Amino acid sequence: MGIEQQGALNSKEQIDTSSASIPDGTVNAVNDWIDVAANSENTIINVLRNDESSRGGLYISEFIQPANGTITNNGNGTFSYTPNPGYAGKDTFSYTVTDGDGNQSSALVEIYVIGSGSMPNDNSANNDQAVNGEPDAKWDDAVTDEDQPVVIDVLANDKDPDGDPITITDFTQPKNGTVVKNADGTFTYTPNPGFHGTDEFEYSVNDGVNAWGDTAKVTIEVREINQTPVARDDSGTTEENTPILIDVLANDSDPDGDAITVVSATAGNGSVEINADGKLVYTPNDGFIGDDHISYTISDPDGNSSSATATITVKKGNEAPVAAGDSAEIDQDQSIVIDALANGSDADGDILTILSFEQPANGMVVQNASGKIGR
Fold first, then answer.
1. DSSP string of 229-269?
2. Structural domains of the chain in order of their starting residue, each with its CATH number
3. Distance (Å, rounded) from C-alpha 70 to C-alpha 80?
């Protein structure tokens, strides 16, 4: 923020800071920061410059003195700051603003006192002290998608009041991911598989001069990403010229629990129909025998899709046996045994049996236990 020299006005003079960007009847005090020189006096800090009020008319109503200097309310929306003699480092104070309706908001001012100073009223060169300020680590935020690593440059917004180089001395591991410190001072954060939500870790910095440093927190928002459904292969068996019903969705799944549907299905040696419940009806081509493959695709409501194969084994069907006519001669009033199955055949090699027979017009037929017919 800038530095201004202004005269003091009445302590409750209202400054027009009206803004249409915040809800009516609200006040928003915004944090400030400024660099000042060690042993300087009455540096003007215009804290109201970036504060907002829906109705304007802000004034400073309260403030707390910093630990390493003094401030004076100039009454015109500014403070005058003087660091303690010889101090260099970070100093802070807070203030509260109020509008004409009594609405209030508070903010923090960070002051970086830069340089070295000599203690006043001490003319001894041996007592001339160079005061080195500690580094200031700022909190960081990062955003990434589920299962995607992100590189975070945490040092980009960190400061050292003396301009000393800052290095990372320590860091913690987050609860829902892992952090690796890179050679260039950045971190690579990798969320745990499937995790989405907010994760965080802390890191510490030092300037190599002070025995102490500073610590800050890094907050990472891991956004949920809709994942692709998983289609798994299936198998089935049928006979030639015989349709089969296949529930291909029975072993498929969606990591997000979304409903999945079959959007397409084709076969090389037959036809496929998709039922309303997602089951497939496969009909082999006429006379086809062997393995056929149904390629099908499933999808979730977001259009993510996955494909798998259902292998159908089409077996040859059992063919009907063939019965051949028989003939025999017999003397009058005699009986004869006729082996009716002797010249019958079955293409599948099945054992043949006689299921039924008709009586002749001029005699009587009895089926024997052996399956032969006697007259």
1. PB---EEEEEETT--EEE-GGGG-B-TT----EEEEEEESS
2. 27-127 (2.60.40.10), 140-223 (2.60.40.10), 234-315 (2.60.40.10), 322-375 (no CATH)
3. 8
CA 28 centroid distance within chain: 33
Q: Tell me the two tokens of residue 57.
A: 């008319």
Greatest Cα pair distance in the chain: 160
* pTM (predicted TM-score): 0.43
The H-or-E segment that residue 69 falls in is strand 69-73
Q: Which of 78, 82, 103 is nearest to 91 (CA)?
A: 82
pLDDT in tens, 74-88: 988 899 999 999 998
Distance CA(279)–CA(217), nearest Å, equals: 52
Segment 205-248, tens digit of pLDDT: 998 887 678 889 999 999 988 889 999 999 999 999 999 999 99
- Supply the pLDDT for residue 13: 37
Strands 373-374 and 337-338: antiparallel
Statement: residue 132 has pLDDT above 90? no
